[in-house]
Design brief:
The protein is α/β, with parallel strands linked by helices and 230 residues long. It contains 8 helices and 11 strands.
Length: 230
C-alpha cells in the first residue's frame, strides 16, 4: 500500500496543441493573468535568474526533496522538445538545486527552461547559454543525490498548483500557469484583451484621459469626489 506520492515517474503525460502554445507565447504574463480572470500567478518571489529571461511551454513537473536534485536527472529523460521543467519541493529550500551542467543536459533534450521554488547557481553560465530560469533564490550551496521525489505528478510551486502538461509562461513580470485544457481559449482571450488595450493605447496617445475612456466621471461624482479651485 502506497502511503504517499514519492518515488513515482509518470512517463505518458498529455500536452496541449503546440500551435496553441505558440499563440500563447506571444503574450506577456500580465495579459494572460488578466485574460484568465486574474488567476494563475505564482508568488512574486519567483524571479528571473538573469535579465531578459522568458519562457513558455508545457510543464514536466518535478517534486524535489530539500537539498537533493536527484529527480532532475530522472526528469531529463521525460523531457520532449518544447517542454519546461517546473519544480517544487516537499518543504522550503533555497539550496542551489540546478546549474550549468543540468541546463546542458536539458538543452540537449529540447527543454526551454526552468521554473523552481528553490535555488539555482551558475547564473552567468545560464545567461551565456540563454537557458531561461525563474527561481526562488540564487545560491551557490550544492545538493546531493540521495532521496526519492517524483516526476510528472501535480506539484505546488510558489502557492500555485501545476499539473503535468499545463503551460507555464514566465517573463520579467512573473510566472503564470495555464491549465492544459484551457490553453487555446486563454490564447484567444489574451488576443482579445491585447486588441482592446491597443485601442485604448491609441486614445491615450491622442491625449484622451482615462477618466473619459473608462467612464469614471459619473461613479466618482456618486462616490463624493469634489473638485475645489482653491
Amino acid at each position: 500500500m502506497r502511503l504517499n506520492n514519492l518515488g513515482i515517474v509518470r512517463t505518458n503525460i498529455e500536452r496541449p496543441d503546440p500551435t496553441d502554445v505558440e499563440r500563447l507565447s506571444q503574450f506577456g504574463v500580465a495579459t494572460i493573468h488578466e485574460a484568465m480572470g486574474r488567476v494563475g500567478l505564482l508568488r512574486p518571489y519567483i524571479r528571473p535568474a538573469y535579465t531578459g529571461a522568458k519562457l513558455c511551454g508545457p510543464a514536466v513537473t518535478v517534486l524535489l526533496q530539500p537539498g537533493d536534485n536527484w529527480m532532475f536527472h530522472v526528469a531529463a529523460e521525460q523531457v520532449q522538445e518544447g517542454d519546461v521543467i517546473v519544480a517544487g519541493c516537499t518543504t522550503e529550500s533555497e539550496d542551489g538545486f540546478f546549474g550549468e551542467l543540468l541546463a546542458t543536459s536539458l538543452t540537449a533534450r529540447g527543454c526551454k527552461g526552468l521554473v523552481i521554488d528553490g535555488g539555482v547557481r551558475d547564473v552567468a553560465d545560464l545567461e551565456k547559454m540563454d537557458f531561461p530560469v525563474f527561481s526562488r533564490a540564487v545560491n551557490a550551496k550544492g545538493t546531493v543525490k540521495a532521496t526519492l521525489g517524483s516526476v510528472n505528478i501535480p506539484v505546488v510551486v510558489a502557492n500555485a498548483v501545476v499539473n503535468p502538461g499545463d503551460v507555464v509562461v514566465a517573463d520579467v513580470d512573473g510566472v503564470v500557469v495555464v491549465p492544459r485544457e484551457l490553453v487555446g481559449a486563454v490564447a484567444d482571450a489574451s488576443q482579445k484583451r491585447e486588441d482592446n488595450e491597443e485601442a485604448k493605447r491609441a486614445k491615450f496617445r491622442e491625449g484622451v484621459l482615462g477618466l473619459d475612456i473608462y467612464g469614471m466621471r459619473e461613479p466618482l461624482a456618486k462616490a463624493g469626489l469634489e473638485y475645489v479651485e482653491n
